[in-house]
Amino acid sequence: MLTHLDAQGRANMVDVSDKQPTTRDALAEARVRMLPTTLQMIVAGGHPKGDVFAVARIAGIQAAKKTADLIPLCHSLMLSSVNVELQAEGDDCVRIRARCKLTGQTGVEMEALAAASIAALTIYDMCKAVDRGMQIESVRLLEKSGGASGDFSAP
């Protein structure tokens, strides 16, 4: 049984040493709502701090690689792939999708969620001077495959 509690009820890292490595894949997303003028500035490449999407993409990739440093009891993983995509959605939203993959003994859901979240926070950080009312929303797991718990696809 996998649990984060030991026999005494204390938090601990799950022991995955007896699990067979399998291909694991997870896709997470986040959205950042903003003023239409803020989104126009980002898309036009007119932000004084530079290419917002490029910086957010790199931040998301770095976050996926450092998830074990951010989330207590999370395993350090050798990710084989991290992909962060950002795109304008409508006139006031950026949709972020982060996919993480590996062949290993534990899943990559937290890495994908961390990537999407940190990319969203990076957009907020870069744009807060022009739009303090931005909202980060809908951070969620969209799908995952591999592992003993089976596949998942959000409705």
Automatic annotation (TrEMBL):
> So what does this thing catalyse?
(8S)-3',8-cyclo-7,8-dihydroguanosine 5'-triphosphate = cyclic pyranopterin phosphate + diphosphate
Q: Where, by residue number, does substrate bind?
A: L73, C74, H75, M110, E111
Q: Does the keyword Lyase apply?
A: yes
Q: Can you tell which superkingdom this protein's organism belongs to? A: Bacteria
Metabolic or biological pathway, per its Swiss-Prot or TrEMBL entry = Cofactor biosynthesis; molybdopterin biosynthesis
Can you tell me which residues form the catalytic site?
D125
List UniProt keywords, sorted A-Z.
Answer: Lyase, Molybdenum cofactor biosynthesis
Report the record's Gene Ontology biological process terms: Mo-molybdopterin cofactor biosynthetic process
Per its record, what are the GO molecular function terms?
A: cyclic pyranopterin monophosphate synthase activity
Q: Which residues cross the membrane?
A: none
Known partners and oligomeric status: Homohexamer; trimer of dimers.
What's this protein's name? Cyclic pyranopterin monophosphate synthase
**Organism for this UniProt entry:** Pseudomonas peli
Taxonomic lineage of this organism?
Bacteria, Pseudomonadati, Pseudomonadota, Gammaproteobacteria, Pseudomonadales
